[in-house]
Amino acid sequence: MIHPEYWSLMSIYQRLKYGKYDKMGENDIKCYSTLDVENKTVLDIGAYIGDSARLFLKNGAVKVICVEAQEKYARKITDKRCVIVNKKFTLDMLNIYHDCAKLT
Predict the structure, then answer these.
(1) What per-residue confidence (pLDDT) applies to 10?
(2) Helix-strand-coil percent breakdown of the chain, rounded to 5?
(3) Is position 4 within any domain?
(4) Rg of the chain over CA atoms, in angstroms?
(5) Within-domain flag for 96
(6) Whole-angstrom Cα distance, residue 82 to residue 78?
(7) CA of 63: how far to CAs of 8, 13, 21, 29, 80, in Å?
(8) Domain total in the chain
(9) How far is it, in rounded angstroms, from Cα 46 to Cα 48?
Protein backbone atom coordinates (compact mmCIF):
# COMPACT_ATOMS: atom_id res chain seq x y z
CA MET A 1 0.00 0.00 0.00
CA ILE A 2 1.39 3.37 -0.90
CA HIS A 3 -0.37 6.65 -0.28
CA PRO A 4 1.03 9.86 -1.79
CA GLU A 5 0.43 11.81 1.41
CA TYR A 6 1.55 8.98 3.68
CA TRP A 7 3.76 11.01 5.98
CA SER A 8 3.05 14.68 6.57
CA LEU A 9 5.77 17.29 6.41
CA MET A 10 4.93 18.33 9.98
CA SER A 11 5.71 14.81 11.21
CA ILE A 12 9.07 14.84 9.47
CA TYR A 13 9.78 18.32 10.84
CA GLN A 14 9.01 17.17 14.40
CA ARG A 15 11.39 14.23 14.08
CA LEU A 16 14.20 16.32 12.60
CA LYS A 17 13.85 19.32 14.91
CA TYR A 18 13.13 17.60 18.21
CA GLY A 19 14.47 14.11 17.60
CA LYS A 20 11.21 12.61 18.76
CA TYR A 21 7.63 12.19 17.73
CA ASP A 22 4.99 11.84 20.43
CA LYS A 23 1.76 11.83 18.51
CA MET A 24 0.34 11.58 15.05
CA GLY A 25 -0.60 14.81 13.38
CA GLU A 26 -4.01 15.48 11.89
CA ASN A 27 -2.68 14.94 8.36
CA ASP A 28 -1.12 11.62 9.38
CA ILE A 29 -4.41 10.38 10.81
CA LYS A 30 -6.30 11.50 7.70
CA CYS A 31 -3.84 9.78 5.35
CA TYR A 32 -3.56 6.56 7.35
CA SER A 33 -7.36 6.38 7.59
CA THR A 34 -7.67 6.22 3.78
CA LEU A 35 -5.72 2.95 3.69
CA ASP A 36 -7.87 -0.18 3.43
CA VAL A 37 -6.68 -2.38 6.30
CA GLU A 38 -9.97 -3.99 7.30
CA ASN A 39 -9.53 -7.72 8.05
CA LYS A 40 -5.86 -7.51 7.03
CA THR A 41 -2.49 -8.18 8.61
CA VAL A 42 -0.31 -5.07 8.38
CA LEU A 43 3.48 -5.11 8.40
CA ASP A 44 4.46 -1.84 10.11
CA ILE A 45 8.15 -1.21 9.45
CA GLY A 46 9.40 1.62 11.62
CA ALA A 47 6.58 1.18 14.13
CA TYR A 48 8.04 3.64 16.65
CA ILE A 49 5.66 3.67 19.67
CA GLY A 50 2.81 1.95 17.85
CA ASP A 51 0.79 5.05 16.99
CA SER A 52 0.14 3.95 13.41
CA ALA A 53 -0.48 0.36 14.57
CA ARG A 54 -3.23 1.61 16.91
CA LEU A 55 -4.85 3.49 14.05
CA PHE A 56 -4.66 0.43 11.76
CA LEU A 57 -6.30 -1.69 14.46
CA LYS A 58 -8.96 0.95 15.03
CA ASN A 59 -9.68 0.85 11.29
CA GLY A 60 -10.21 -2.91 11.26
CA ALA A 61 -6.80 -4.58 10.91
CA VAL A 62 -6.77 -7.98 12.58
CA LYS A 63 -3.05 -7.94 13.37
CA VAL A 64 -0.11 -5.57 13.05
CA ILE A 65 3.45 -6.83 12.90
CA CYS A 66 5.50 -3.97 14.34
CA VAL A 67 9.17 -3.83 13.33
CA GLU A 68 10.97 -1.38 15.61
CA ALA A 69 14.74 -1.48 16.16
CA GLN A 70 14.85 0.68 19.29
CA GLU A 71 13.78 -1.28 22.35
CA LYS A 72 12.70 1.81 24.32
CA TYR A 73 10.05 2.49 21.66
CA ALA A 74 9.11 -1.14 21.00
CA ARG A 75 8.29 -1.57 24.73
CA LYS A 76 5.57 1.08 24.39
CA ILE A 77 3.60 -1.08 21.95
CA THR A 78 1.27 -2.98 24.25
CA ASP A 79 -1.77 -4.03 22.20
CA LYS A 80 -2.13 -7.83 22.20
CA ARG A 81 -2.99 -7.76 18.48
CA CYS A 82 0.52 -6.47 17.73
CA VAL A 83 3.47 -8.76 17.16
CA ILE A 84 6.66 -6.89 18.02
CA VAL A 85 9.86 -7.56 16.10
CA ASN A 86 12.53 -5.68 18.05
CA LYS A 87 15.25 -5.78 15.39
CA LYS A 88 16.68 -3.55 12.71
CA PHE A 89 14.79 -4.03 9.44
CA THR A 90 16.23 -6.43 6.90
CA LEU A 91 14.79 -7.34 3.50
CA ASP A 92 14.03 -10.90 4.60
CA MET A 93 11.39 -9.45 6.96
CA LEU A 94 9.29 -8.87 3.85
CA ASN A 95 8.80 -12.66 3.86
CA ILE A 96 6.74 -12.36 7.06
CA TYR A 97 3.13 -12.96 6.07
CA HIS A 98 1.26 -9.67 5.57
CA ASP A 99 -1.52 -8.31 3.39
CA CYS A 100 -0.16 -4.75 3.26
CA ALA A 101 2.75 -2.79 4.65
CA LYS A 102 3.67 0.64 5.97
CA LEU A 103 7.33 1.55 5.67
CA THR A 104 8.77 4.56 7.41
Answers:
(1) 52
(2) 35, 15, 50
(3) no
(4) 13
(5) yes
(6) 7
(7) 24, 29, 23, 19, 9
(8) 1
(9) 6
Task: Determine the angle formed by the axes of helices 26-33 and 51-58, rounding to 10 degrees.
Answer: 40
Decide: 64 and 53 in contact? Cβ < 8 Å.
Answer: yes
**What CATH number does the domain containing 20 carry?**
3.40.50.150
pLDDT tens series, the chain, 104 aa: 444 444 454 555 555 555 555 566 676 677 777 788 999 999 999 999 998 899 999 999 999 999 999 999 999 999 999 999 999 999 999 999 999 998 87
Residue 1 falls inside a structural domain: no
Domain limits for position 63: 9-103
Can you give the pLDDT at residue 103?
86
